[in-house]
Every structure is written in structure tokens, then in C-alpha cells.
Amino acid sequence: MTKTYPFFTNFILLLLLITTPCLKSTVGKTDQCKILLPPELANFDSTISNKLHSDPETIKIASSDYGNIIQEFPKAVFHPSSIQDIITLIKISNNSSVPFNIAARGQGHSTNGQSMARDGVVVDMASFRKQRKGVAISVSEDPLIGYYVDVGGEQLWIDVLYETLQHGLAPASWTDYLYLTVGGTLSNAGISGQTFRYGPQISNVHELDVITGKGDYVTCSYEKNSELFHAVLGGLGQFGVITRARISLQPAPTTVKWIRLLYSDFSAFTKDQERLISIKGRKQNIELDFLEGMLLMQQGILYCLELVKYYDDQSENMVDKEIQVLLQGLAYIPGLHYEKNVPYVEFLNRVRSGELKLQSQGLWDVPHPWLNLFVPKSQILDFNSGIFKDIILKRNITNGNVLVYPMNKSK
What Pfam families does the record point to (predicted)? Predict the structure, then answer.
């Protein structure tokens, strides 16, 4: 079993954000970010210089991100074909009299410029994903830790899902959106509706391979180079580039029972959320696999509780009875109870259809000013009255996505 981090008290998460890492080539020297690349950039060894691109279109893509609010123009974009290429680039910067900024860009899904490198070099991990030689996603079993998957940091979670499912397995903890890199989400935390039970993605990692800010290639884990291991996981990319992660796996379900309940009272909504994530160990060990909440803001404010129970052929006969036990005594609006059964993959990849629709309407590339907050349980009712009602409701704000859901501090 993997270990968990005791770093949360009792919090509600608002507005999920996933960012990709930015590595300062000299760790801790953030004042180097604005320094120009040295003139010898164009005179690197051909194995490096041939992979540096500075054409206007490439620079333009690397100068923006999903937030579409901030622009920072790099001097070049690096297309590595091996881990050694990235090591060499970082060592060149680290050994330079004037180190230059380096940012590892996965899907560019940050919202505040975290994957950019002003006057520096952006390492295009998407290009690395296409060019990397060797197996980048590999499932194995260990007698001590069970099943796990070794994944290149540049790989997408959607591809991890499809590969592990071929073995009847899957990671336990996900993000709501799967077209993100493994290194990108592990550099943040990797949080979604499974976190209350399984912990964030960083709590499900056994081992990492990391290129540090000095260009050292280091394997780290709970027992080996543990300080680096804990710094990199959730370290916002400031301690190294993740090139491999060993992630725990569990048997994958085939189907999910997907339920939505509506509330008009925020206090009842949060109390039911807290009750549902505390059920473990009670009532025949029946517990949910996923729980989130959201605001519906079309006419006033309603609060939607979204919950999921996984099952397969062996447990199909029991899932409805278990759901009845879980829903018993909840204070949602009578009659506003919606449920459906969908394949496991369809549920995990549910955001993709919305993305494609927004892309077709030209709305995927608009500015996205997103914010994440961890709010203490003791203050969440004040947050509802002060923000949701006094700002969102009074100003009749109906656009945007607001997520509100609880986490167990033990995870």
C-alpha cells in the first residue's frame, strides 16, 4: 500500500486547476527568470541546437497557456528526443555564467503562465512524447507493493487509463480532465472527486525519476532521496522535471452508478457531503468512490451533489441496495434525484465531450481566470454567504464553473 500525506486539515475545494511545471535552471534563484539567454545559444552542440526552434508560430504557441491571460515569449522551444537531451540542456544553463530560465511544458494547461519561460527555453514535453524511444507506459507487479505502472512524465493520463485497462487495472486517483501530462499533475497534486477516499494523485506514487536543476538524474522514493521525492510531488515544478513516475494500480471496475442530487440549502448540501465522505468503516463498509459538488447558477443558485459508485459484473446485483443505504436520510430536494449507469471510461473521460463542443464553438481558447482555494470547514458557510450569494447571485453571474467538495484530512 502507498502512504499518504497529512497535509490537509478539513477543506472544501473550489475551482479545480491543473498546471504544468516551470523549472528554474538554478533552483532557488528566481531572480534569474528575466535574464536573457547567452549568445552562445546558437552555438550549442548540433545534437542540442538542431532541436531548438524559434520560428514565430512555435514561439507563439509556447508563449500562452490555457488561461490565455498571460503571455511570456521564450527565446526558443526545445524538442527533446531523449531524457539525455533534457539533462544536457539543463546542465548548459546551470553551468553558464548567466543561467537562463527553463520551463517544462506538457499540455500548457496552466492558467497563470507557469509553463512559460520569458527569454528562456520551453521544453516541449508533447514533442518528447511523440519522439521518445522505448516503452513509456509499462504495467508490472511487485510482491511488496502489488500492481503498478511506470509512466513517462510526458505521457497523458488518458493513455495511462487505456493501457492499464488492458490489464484489468487502473490508478485509483484521477483529475477531472485526462488530457494532461503525468508530470504536470504530479507537480501540483492531482485532485478530484476521488481524493476524499484515495488521496490526491501524489499520494499514490511509489517512485520518481527526476532531472534536478543541476542536471542530475535522480531516482527517488519514500526511502531513497526522500527529501527530493516529497519536494517534487506538489512542488510546482521548482525542484526538477519528472521523467518517470511509478503509480499504484488497483482492479478496474467496468461501470459506474452516476447520481446527481439538487439542494437549495447550502448548509444541508455541505453536511451531506461531509457525511458521505465519512462513511468508511460503517454500514457494512459501503462507501462512495467519487464525490464532488457544483453550483448551478441559471436562475438563482442551486447546489448539485454529484456522487459515483463503481461496480462490475460481480457487484452489479448489490450496487442499487448500497446506493439506497448511502442516500438514506440525505436532505436533497425531493424528486430532484437523477441517476444513470455509464461505462467507467466514459465517466472518467466525461470532460472530453464538453471540450470538443467548446472547441467547435471557438470557446475553448477564451481567457480562463481560474482560482483554487482550500477553505476550512469552519468558514465554508461564511464563504457561501459572502461570495456565492453576495457576489455571484447579486451580480447575476451565470457563466463559469464553480466546484465545491470536501476532503478527509487523513488523505
Answer: Cytokin-bind, FAD_binding_4
Q: Please give the tally of structural domains in the chain.
A: 3
Residue 43 within any structural domain of the chain: yes
- 3-state class of 147 per DSSP? strand
pLDDT tens digits, one per residue of 126-182: 999 998 866 799 999 999 999 999 999 999 999 999 999 999 999 999 999 999 999
pLDDT at 280: 72
From CA 252, how far away is CA 198, in angstroms rounded?
Answer: 14
- To which H or E segment does residue 14 belong? strand 11-14
Looking at the structure, do residues 63 and 161 belong to the same domain, yes or no?
no
Q: Distance between CA atoms of 368 and 110, rounded to whole angstroms?
A: 10
Question: What pTM does this model have?
Answer: 0.88
pLDDT tens, residue by residue, 246-265: 999 999 999 999 999 999 99
Number of neighbours of residue 316 by Cβ within 10 angstroms = 13
- Give me 109's grid cell: 494547461
Tell me, yes or no, whether 149 and 106 share the same domain: no
**Which residues are the active-site residues?**
109, 176, 292
Do residues 281 and 347 both lie within one domain?
A: yes
Sheet with 52-53, edge to edge strand ranges: 52-53, 76-78, 121-124, 102-105
Same domain flag for 106 and 139:
no
Measure the CA–CA gap between 34 and 48, rounded to whole angstroms.
22
Q: For the segment 218-252, what is each residue's pLDDT rounded down to a tens digit? A: 999 999 999 999 999 999 999 999 999 999 999 99
Kindly state whether residues 151 and 217 are assigned to the same domain.
yes
The verdict on 199 and 91 lying in the same domain is no
Residue located via cell numbers 456565492: 388
Q: Cell numbers for 97, please give them.
A: 555564467
